[in-house]
Amino acid sequence: FRRFFDWAVRHGHAPHILFDGLKVPKAKDAATQRKPFSKEQVQLIFRELTENPSGFVRSDSHKWGSLLGMFTGARLNEICQLEIADIQNDEDIWFINITDEGDNNKRVKAKASRRKVPLHSSLIQLGFLDFKKSREKHGRLFQDYGYYSNGGYGRSLGRWYNESFLPKLGLKRDELVFHSLRHTMVTRLGQAGVPEPIYKCIVGHAREGVTQEVYLREGYTLRQLSEAIERFKV
After folding, report:
1. Cβ neighbours around 27 below 10 Å, total
2. Separation CA 81–CA 102 (nearest Å)
3. What share of the chain is helix, strand, coil (3-state, %, to 5)?
4. Is the dihedral of CA 144, 148, 151, 156 positive or negative?
5. What is the pLDDT of residues 88-147, one digit of tens each?
6. How far apart are CA 13 and CA 6, in angstroms?
7. CA distances, 194 to each of 3, 48, 122, 149, 214 (Å)
C-alpha cells in the first residue's frame, strides 16, 4: 500500500503518501504451549504430595490444592477461592461447586465455568473430607491464601508449585506448570474413552453444537460426571 501511494503521489493522483513510515510488525513468538504431565510425572507428583518423602510439601493447603488440581482439572483460582460451603453432597456424591457466589472476590472465567465437579474417590480415600472439616470454622477452604488483584487467590499456590515444587522434582519446563494438571485431566479422560462433551463439563469448557446446546441444555448428571472422572488413574 505504501508503494502504491508513493506511485500515486509521483504521478499526481494523491496529495500525500499514506502508510509512509509504517511497518508490518513481525509476529511474536507464540505463547508456550502447555503440555500434560506424563504418567510417570503424575506418579512422581502424586507420591510427593501424599507421602512427602523429600519434605518438599510443608503446607496442607499446598498439598490439597495441588491434589484437587490433579483430580478435578479445575483452574488454579477456581480451587483456591473455594469456600467450605462449596464442598457439597448430593445423592451420596461429594463434589465441589465452582461458582462466583459468596466472596466478592470470587470469579469464574465464563458461563460454562460454573459447574459441579465430583470428587474423585482417591481424594476421599486420602482424607480430603477430614481436611475440609478441619477448615470449617474459617469459611474459606484455603484461608491462608490471600487475594491479589494480579492472580486472585491462586497466586501463592501457583508460585509454590511452579517455582519451588516442580523445580525440586526436576520437572521444571516452560510447558509444565500447575495448569498442566488441567491438560492432563483432559488428555487422560479422552484417552480413557470419556466423550468430549462430558469431559468439557468437568473442566468447564462450553459444549458446542445444537445437540449439546439445545437438546441437552441441562447437561449431564452428577452420576455421569462421577463415573467419568473415576476413569482418571494415577
Report:
1. 6
2. 10
3. 45, 10, 45
4. negative
5. 999 999 999 999 998 889 999 888 899 999 999 999 999 999 999 999 998 999 999 999
6. 10
7. 56, 28, 19, 36, 21
